[in-house]
Amino acid sequence: MSLRIVVWSGGLGIVLLLLAVGAAWLLSLPSASLAAVPPAIDSQEAEAAVAALKPQKRERPLIAIVGINDATETTDYLMPYGILRRADVADVVALATGPGPVKLFPALQVEPDATVAEFDAQHPEGADYVIVPAMMRDDDADVLKWIKSQAAKGATIIGICAGAKVVGASGLLDGKRATTHWYSLNELREKHPTIRYVADRRFVVDQDVATTTGITASMPMMLTLIEAIAGRDKAEAVGRDLGLAQWDARHASAAFTFTRPFALTAIGNTLAVLGHEQLGIELAPDMDEVSLALVADAWSRTYRSRAVTFAAKDAAIVSRNGIRVLPDQVAANWPAERLIPSMVGPRPAKALDQALGDISARYGARTTDFVAMQLEYPGQP
């Protein structure tokens, strides 16, 4: 037997072994997530959450949303900004740890209002609330130092989605009740064993720290914060403007887990390289930044497509509520068959449902379920 055949057969054996291990792993995954009914939230618990979120420092609170420049989660960063700005019950600023734009993941790039250093110089007494999105790094020294300093000045810290891992790394969740995105839960509990996980809640408030489940949970979280600041009527009005008829902390945690269809869709869509495409979103003045974030986020999580923004000029386009979005490409138009509809019309909650419907039509229902699972989106109540 020649050396070439020996090497070839040995390599084939390794490949077969890896395939066997991979197949065994896939078979070990559940074939479907559990169909679960969210348990009711009693009025006492809901009232306690609102009470804990009441502003403690200013009559008109100051809310800071912080991110790192090189990778902060798209919707975690932009949805709180857009919802709170449209409510007009607080002064809201989008911050970055350093100068320059914030590159969001998996899509979009924005110019923040200020750096954390500039914020500190302007507001030495600190913010009333600090919103912490998911970030590529949970242990960024600059952001952890700043979050801890804001908490020491009396700010309520709100971790959105896997932003709970950042808050956990700051030590502010030790001994507290909390939740996070389903995919990050085991990691959070392993790194911070004193955290008391609360299942079946889209958000959990424990004294001066709040956390949420997946990406879309920042919508009910922000509406609850608005209720704490300005009352239920105001929160309901903003909810209607978002296209959300009702909301609370109810959640069916068992419905969100790593399943065999989820894994197979991720693998299949990744390997379908000839079917990968860039889909264009034209940036327009006064576009709704919440709808933009949700739609760009959803399309960029199919593992088949990536949302790319474009505009006629290489300059930031200002959204409805003042966020400056930088185009990925300078272009006057985009091929019609690869153009994502404008964000001007639909209300945000409806825009997400529309995007999921369009994803289903383009790539199939399994990809839609795959995206909704990543967003931890239970659908409209």
In a few lines, what is going on in this structure?
With 381 residues, this protein is of the alpha/beta class. It is built from 13 helices and 17 strands. It has helices at 3-28, 43-52, 74-87, 116-122, 141-152, 163-169, 185-191, 218-230, 232-242, 260-271, 289-299, 348-363, 365-375; strands spanning 62-67, 72-73, 91-96, 102-105, 109-111, 114-115, 129-132, 156-159, 177-178, 196-197, 203-206, 209-212, 277-282, 305-311, 317-318, 324-325, 329-330.
Describe the protein in words.
The chain is of the alpha/beta class. It folds into two domains: 43-254, Rossmann fold, CATH 3.40.50.880; 260-375, Rossmann fold. It has 13 helices and 17 strands. It has helices spanning 3-28, 43-52, 74-87, 116-122, 141-152, 163-169, 185-191, 218-230, 232-242, 260-271, 289-299, 348-363, 365-375, and strands at residues 62-67, 72-73, 91-96, 102-105, 109-111, 114-115, 129-132, 156-159, 177-178, 196-197, 203-206, 209-212, 277-282, 305-311, 317-318, 324-325, 329-330. The strands form four sheets. The chain has a seven-stranded mixed β-sheet with strand order 6-3-1-7-8-12-11, sandwiched between helices. It has a five-stranded mixed β-sheet with strand order 2-4-5-16-15. Helix 7 links the parallel strand 9 and strand 10. Helix 3 runs antiparallel to helix 11 and helix 8 (218-230) packs antiparallel against helix 9 (232-242). The longest helix is centred in the first third of the chain and has 26 residues, at 3-28. The radius of gyration is 22 Å and the shape is globular. InterPro entries: Class_I_gatase-like, DJ-1/PfpI, INH-QAR. This is Transcriptional regulator.
